[in-house]
Structures are given as C-alpha cells and as structure tokens.
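Appendix B. Raw example, untouched.
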Amino acid sequence: MTVSVESAARFIAECSGWKATNLTIQKILYLSQVVHLGRTGQLLADTEFEAWDYGPVSPQLYRQLRGFGSRPIPESVLWQGEDISGTPEAETLREACEHLGDKSGGELIRNTHWSGGAWAKRYVPGANVRISAEDMLDEYRNRVHRANHKAA
C-alpha cells in the first residue's frame, strides 16, 4: 500500500519530536522511498521527486512546507496526515529516521548527491528533472552493491 505524502511527512516529523525541517523531511522521505521501492517493488508515498539543487525534492510537499524555511515543521501543518503506525511503510520510515534523524542538512544533501544515485543521474542546474521509479530502483541496487563490496 502506498501512503499519502502528508502521512509519511507527519511520521518523520513525529519521529524527530517535531524538530524536522523541510529539508530533513525531504531527504529522509526520498531515501525511504528508494529503500522501500527496492525492497518491496512498491512506492512508499504517493509523490514524485525531482532533482533540485539541494538534492531530490517532492515538489508537492515542498510547496506545503516552504514557508517554514529552515525552521521545524509544526504539527498543525501536517494535521491531515493519517496515522500509518504498524504498516510496512511506517517500518521503512522508522528505520530511516533511526539511521538519518541525527544527520545535519549538509550530511543528508551529500548522501542524496551520491554519484551512484538517481539525483546525480538526473540533475541539470535549474531544470528540476523528474526522478523516475526506475532511477530510484537503480540507486537502490547501486547502494546495495556498494555496501556489499565494502563489507567484503
């Protein structure tokens, strides 16, 4: 099942104790989408991503959160997000929050700008090119392959 982008964003913000910014939510959501798609073959959230200057961005979510700049997103903004606890999507998001929640914005940007990822493949300065599900699957495979070679 694919969850709404608002529900996924709300879950990430809740995991952060409502300290997550637009940038943090965007990057954790994108990386969660990559992992969930790679593991299950299904999209985690009902949103598309584009390759922007600071990494992959859900334009739909960006428009909703941009007014907060680098400030944390308050609960009142994501009130429409449903509780997705207990779903496979929530488990993927929880795992991502545990691994990425303490990273700085710069660290998250560097992570999503990885040369083997979809952003690097699609980024054109000023163009906001769509990142396809196939691009995200390729990124997942590249990340798994890289991790396996590091472990060997």
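End of appendix B.
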